[in-house]
Every structure is written in structure tokens, then in C-alpha cells.
Amino acid sequence: CSRPQKVCLCPFLPIHPLKVSTCLYIIQHPAEESRVLRTVPLLAACLPPDKCKILVGRRFSEDRYPELATVCRSPSTLILYPGAEATNLEEVAEMPASPSVMIIIDGTWSQAKDIFYKNSLFRLPKQVQIKTNISSQYVIRTQPTNTCLSTLECAAVALTIMEKNKSIQETILRPLQALCAFQLQHGAQIHHSKEHLLKTGLYDKPMPKNKRKLRRMELLVNNVKI
């Protein structure tokens, strides 16, 4: 797990990397690389090295990343990014020829949006989303809504669907659950989603002056999908 001995999570990782046919490309925003409690290293520790490739950056051109460009142009590649144009992953996984590569963007919602829309390569693969009502177990970091998932959780759910194996999700989530439990035992607080705080009147930060951001908060309170 590459963590200090006192906070080692190796006992919660699978003894052997999970056997999966799907290859993940994690496109990581540089700001995530320095976060102490990031989840991508735990995800990588659960999978074979050739099935979890991490690329760090904001801009990905075809000249600088020829391998990634080839992957993006392949009909067997998906990109996990929710939106009006995205197809539910469950529907895609039922097709006779299942896709073998999935791209996942790792960053805050605004960082992921910036990477997706400012890199034309990422609009070449088929866009998919996960249709799930499960709540995030990454309770030591604030999420926009209760159903917003961390990169590790997204990968766990996606791989479970793609590989048609429910045990994958349980195995990948185990180190995340241990990480959160350890942090809570040592003084960390449970972070409720922004949606929860707004609805319960517990949101204690100044409301944004930007009309677009203020409108997004109003949508969260009124249960409108954004």
C-alpha cells in the first residue's frame, strides 16, 4: 500500500492481484497526486500492473501520448463520465462483444470536467455512466451528493459490472473501508455531502456570489440531478 507501518493497509488488500480482463486507464489531475488520502494507489494495489495504468496531467495530446490516442480510438474503449450523452454501463456490458478498456478521470468534479472537455481525445470513446443509488463509503472527504463516488468506488462498481463478478466490488472497497475507519479512530470527522448539509441547514460556509454556483446549490437542495 506504500503507507507507513503504523497506518499500513496491506492486510486489507487481496493476497494476489484480482484477475480481470478489463484494463483501466486512470487519468489523474496533478492535484490528486499530492493528496495524502487519495484512493487510486489502493485501487492500483488491488489490480495487476498491466490492468491499471495511471497517467498524470491536465492536457493529453495525440503527439505526447500516442498510446493513449490509440486506446481512445479503439472501439473497445469506454470513458466513465456521466452526462446526457452517456449510456448506462449495465446496458453496454450486456452486449456480445464486451469492451476491454475503460478510462476514468481522477480529480474533483470541476477538475474532471476541465480534463474531459479540454481534451478532444476523451470524447472519442463511448461515454458511459454508472446507474447506482449506493452511498459513498469515502466518508472522510466531502462529496457534492450522497451518491457521488470516489475514483476507487467508481472503478469497483464498473469492474463488477464489466466482469460480472460481485466479489470484485467487495475486495476493492475493503482497503477504503479500513482507511476511513482508521482515520475516524484517530480524530477524523465524518464528512457529510454538501447536499446533506444544505438540506439540514448545517452548511456553514458563505454562499457563493457566482449565480451559476448558487443555482447548482439550489438544485442540490431540490433533488434535481446535476
UniProtKB/TrEMBL annotation:
Alphabetized UniProt keyword annotations: S-adenosyl-L-methionine, Transferase, tRNA processing
InterPro entries named in the record: DTW, DTWD2/TAPT
Reactions listed under catalytic activity: a uridine in tRNA + S-adenosyl-L-methionine = a 3-[(3S)-3-amino-3-carboxypropyl]uridine in tRNA + S-methyl-5'-thioadenosine + H(+)
EC annotation from Swiss-Prot or TrEMBL: 2.5.1.25
Keyword S-adenosyl-L-methionine: yes
All residue ranges annotated as the DTW domain in the record: 1-188
GO term, biological process aspect, one: tRNA processing
Molecular functions per Gene Ontology: tRNA-uridine aminocarboxypropyltransferase activity
Keyword tRNA processing in record: yes
Pfam families, alphabetized: DTW
First-tier enzyme category under EC: transferase
Highest taxon listed in the record's lineage: Eukaryota
SMART domains named among the record's database cross-references: DTW
Stated family: Belongs to the TDD superfamily. DTWD2 family.
Protein name: tRNA-uridine aminocarboxypropyltransferase
